[in-house]
UniProtKB/TrEMBL annotation:
Highest taxon of source: Bacteria
Source organism: Streptomyces bingchenggensis (strain BCW-1)
UniProt GO BP: respiratory electron transport chain
InterPro entries assigned to the protein according to its UniProt record, in alphabetical order: Asp_de-COase-like_dom_sf, MoPterin_dinucl-bd_dom, Mopterin_OxRdtase, Mopterin_OxRdtase_4Fe-4S_dom, Prok_molybdopt-oxidoreductase
Domain 4Fe-4S Mo/W bis-MGD-type, residue spans: 11-71
Cofactor section: Mo-bis(molybdopterin guanine dinucleotide); [4Fe-4S] cluster
Name of the protein in question: Putative molybdopterin oxidoreductase
Entry-linked SMART domains: Molybdop_Fe4S4
Any single Pfam family the record assigns to this protein: Molybdop_Fe4S4
Single GO MF descriptor: metal ion binding
Coiled-coil ranges per UniProt: none
Gene3D superfamilies (UniProt xref): 2.40.40.20, 3.40.50.740, ADC-like domains, Dimethylsulfoxide Reductase, domain 2
Length: 707
């Protein structure tokens, strides 16, 4: 029978949440009838959970298949020196090996020679424990996580403008009630399908939807107006709209005077971006720019929502800043049903960046270089603040340093062989390590390179909190008994810490870890101290910041003041600049990358689900018929896509829904169709986010294999 925690009704269905994206859809699980195997469960609709109201996408619906999958890991693996192969081992042996290797590396090369790489899919408890483990047990500064590839540009822009970074400053349901939404580089019809309902409701109540995407996606099909700029030109586009706002007298001077700083400089920067110049840069005709600006300003309330399209650029922080400027200049921020928001990505994309697995952060969204923050957190951890290391390298820079001054790595919750930019190079760096340990649920492409693989429990087999895109802290609860050979990530960290001299300080009970996290976050920007497992359960999640009880939590931010010292939002003066790599004679096309509906991220989990593989069996190159004709390529022909970093091969998918100067590849697959063999690791100077969304390529038609 499934193991049920907490106060339960006689109904054996257990409320929990999807393991995948940041919507964190509510669902319930109960034993599948007639299966007779405790690990086989079925999904039951959970209509009461407000975010998805029962709806799930195919990935969420089929997530239980990964629990009982034959290919999941159920025993530790250790690489045998004689055979060079990964072979089964006991937990004692595996953990001993990891502890010895990490200690040996630190002794030989210094504590910073040990690196840690985390993930935005890890629960708050795990992210917190991993950050603490790195700083306290290993004493290394070299920790970062895959959220750097995902959220960091929007986070940096949020902090600059508002003094606080939370994906959406309002509940998602507010989107349905505003007057106009500009959706910039989000394909939420495929990446958060249940959220599409809010856009449908918006339109049904007379609201307008503008989508900005170089492709006519399923999301763009829903739009009243679709602008299809060249990849990497969103910054110019936003500046052009702001120019038109000023030119047509749509500025909200009263709001600017009362609630912001820095308008003259931002205004001057925007005025240098003439609509005709913006048309030349973006390829979007001036009348369309004007129409978008008018739709946005004519509505009484409006929102701008960005996702990875504009953010995964080497100027992502400035780009998001420009969209925020547009909101501020028109008085569309810090007011009910108006504002700027970022649609975070991973299951715990929000919480994962608040509690200390990021290179520069301590729990509660505190800064590692702030003496007061160090003193507070060191107090909770019972250590001397001076022993805490300083900030480390960002994710790509850390991966790039492997085998150099970072010689051993502990990796939890990411599959960079598939998902890192310039992936063949990163794969080589991983191979050059003296030692790597990976905790995972399956033998991912990265785990396959490890010296020790630690099999861990999955979402429905363990309890823990995540923080969804709205800043709503929710509780996943144990609904099934894990297979006997696996342990939780918290147990892994506990076991390693104990071997490294920390018998105490790494509890395995998630609620105990959460209670410590609450104390560590108290008084910080992301204050969780008033949030308890009990409250989350009773209230369908609690929005941070939530200081000590009886605080109600904060569904809507900034209505009275922004989180800056003087309470005013800050305009940022930004100007357009080109992508790090633009098409030229040798590489004449843009490549952009992203997602499809039925696969998740590096595919480590979803490529194990038959139904999803049927729907999305493999990589492809989306290209316009004009380009296909120039190449002499027909539907399904194998195409080689070549960039300065490498080459990938995948079948042609010919479609009018993409600009003729651009090709698109999803990044979910390894092997010869690996999109990240091509991508450019050029980093945003502020957020250190790589430019996944723009690089220059050439495309060659290959002969079809005979037969
Ligand atoms: N099915 C599915 N859903 C997911 C995920 C998944 O892997 N699969 N992953 C989750 C995660 S972690 C994330 S981060 C989110 C991501 O969610 P999204 O951001 O919606 O996903 P992407 O497909 O990466 O990018 C969105 C769109 O950006 C467009 N784009 C490309 N270049 C540009 C550009 O220069 N400017 C603009 N404006 N648009 C551009 C692409 O054409 C694409 O349609 O999805 C989450 N949900
Ligand atoms: N070209 C291109 N590349 C991209 C992007 C893009 O748009 N284009 N998007 C980027 C973005 S936004 C993201 S978020 C990254 C994501 O890419 P990755 O960081 O590779 O993310 P996942 O594929 O989700 O990898 C998670 C791994 O951890 C395992 N796992 C899942 N849950 C747990 C857990 O609780 N504990 C442990 N120990 N393991 C777990 C999974 O099985 C899987 O192997 O990809 C980035 N890469
Ligand atoms: S939309 Fe996201 S959270 Fe909801 S079921 Fe799909 S993958 Fe899971
Ligand atoms: Mo992401």
């Amino acid at each position: 029978m499934p193991h049920v925690t907490g106060a339960m009704t006689p109904d054996p269905a257990v409320n929990t949440h999807c393991p995948y994206c940041s919507l964190q859809c509510g669902m319930a699980l109960r034993p599948a009838p007639g299966e007779g195997r405790a690990e086989v469960v079925e999904v039951v609709e959970r209509t009461a959970f407000p975010v998805n109201r029962g709806a799930l996408c195919g990935k969420g619906r089929t997530a239980p298949a990964v629990l009982s999958s034959q290919v999941r890991l159920t025993e530790p693996l250790v690489r045998r020196p004689d055979t060079g192969r990964l072979e089964p081992a006991t937990w004692e042996e595996a953990l001993d090996r990891v502890a010895e290797a990490l200690t040996g590396t630190a002794q030989a090369h210094g504590q910073d020679a040990v690196g840690v790489f985390g993930g935005g899919g890890l629960t708050n408890e795990k992210a917190y424990a991993l950050g603490k483990f790195a700083r306290v047990v290993l004493g290394t500064s070299q920790i970062d996580y895959n959220g750097r590839f995902c959220m960091s540009s929007a986070a940096a822009a949020h902090n600059k403008a508002f003094g606080l970074d939370r994906g959406l400053p309002f509940p998602l349901a507010d989107v349905a009630r505003t007057g106009c939404v500009i959706l910039v580089g989000s394909n939420l019809a495929e990446t958060m399908p249940p959220a599409l309902r809010y856009l449908t409701e918006l339109k049904e109540s007379g609201g307008k939807l503008i989508v900005i995407d170089p492709r006519r996606t399923r999301t763009a099909e829903q739009a009243d107006l679709h602008l299809a700029p060249r990849p990497g030109t969103d910054l110019a586009l936003a500046l052009g709209l702001l120019h038109l706002v000023v030119a047509e007298g749509r500025v909200d001077e009263e709001f600017i005077a009362r609630r912001t700083n820095g308008w003259p400089e931002a205004r001057a920067a925007a005025m240098a971006h003439w609509p005709e110049m913006v048309e030349r840069i973006t390829g979007v005709p001036v009348p369309e720019l004007r129409e978008a600006m008018r739709m946005f300003c004519d509505a009484e309330t409006s929102m701008v929502l960005t996702a990875r399209g504009p953010e995964q650029q080497s100027k992502g922080t400035d780009t998001v800043g420009a969209w925020i400027n547009l909101c501020l200049a028109t008085g569309r921020a810090g007011r009910p049903l108006s504002g700027y928001g970022c649609l975070t990505g991973q299951g715990n994309g929000q919480g994962g960046r608040e509690h200390g697995q990021k290179a520069d952060q301590l729990p509660g969204y505190r800064k590692l270089d702030d003496p007061a923050a160090r003193a507070h957190v060191a107090g909770v951890w019972g250590v001397d603040p001076d022993t805490l290391p300083g900030p480390g390298r960002s994710a790509y820079e850390l991966l790039d340093a492997l085998g150099g001054d970072v010689r051993a790595l502990l990796l939890m919750g990411s599959n960079p062989v598939v998902s890192a930019p310039r992936a063949a190079h990163i794969e080589a760096r991983l191979r050059s390590l003296d030692f790597m340990a990976v905790a995972d649920v399956v033998l991912s492409e990265t785990a396959a390179l490890a010296d020790v693989v630690l099999p861990v429990t999955q979402w429905a087999e363990e309890t823990g909190t995540t923080t969804n895109l709205e800043g709503r802290v929710i509780l996943r609860r144990t609904a099934v008994t894990p297979p006997p050979g696996v342990r939780s990530d918290l147990e892994v960290l506990h076991g390693l810490a104990a071997r490294l001299g920390w018998e105490k300080g790494f509890p395995t009970d998630p609620e105990e870890v959460f209670d410590e996290l609450r104390r560590a976050s108290a008084g910080g920007a992301a204050d969780y101290s008033g949030i308890t497992y009990r409250r989350i359960t009773e209230e369908d999640g609690v929005f941070w910041p939530c200081p000590e009880e009886p605080h109600p939590g904060t569904p809507r931010l900034f209505l009275d003041r922004f989180a800056t010292d003087d309470g005013r939002a800050r305009f940022v003066p930004v100007s357009h600049r080109p992508a790090a790599e633009e098409p030229d004679a040798e590489y004449p096309l843009f490549l952009t990358t992203g997602r499809v509906l039925s696969q998740y991220q590096s595919g480590a989990q979803t490529r194990r689900v038959e139904e999803l593989n049927r729907a999305a069996p493999g990589p492809f190159v989306q290209l316009h018929p004009q380009l296909a004709e120039r190449l002499g390529a027909a539907e399904g022909d194998p195409l080689a896509v070549v960039s300065r970093r490498g080459r990938a091969v995948a079948p042609a998918r010919i479609s009018r829904d993409i600009r003729p100067d651009t090709v698109f590849m999803p990044f979910h697959w390894a092997g010869e169709g690996r999109a990240n063999a091509l991508t450019n690791p050029a980093l945003d100077p502020v957020s250190r986010m790589p430019e996944f969304k723009v690089c220059a390529v050439r495309v060659e038609r290959m002969e079809r294999a005979p037969g």
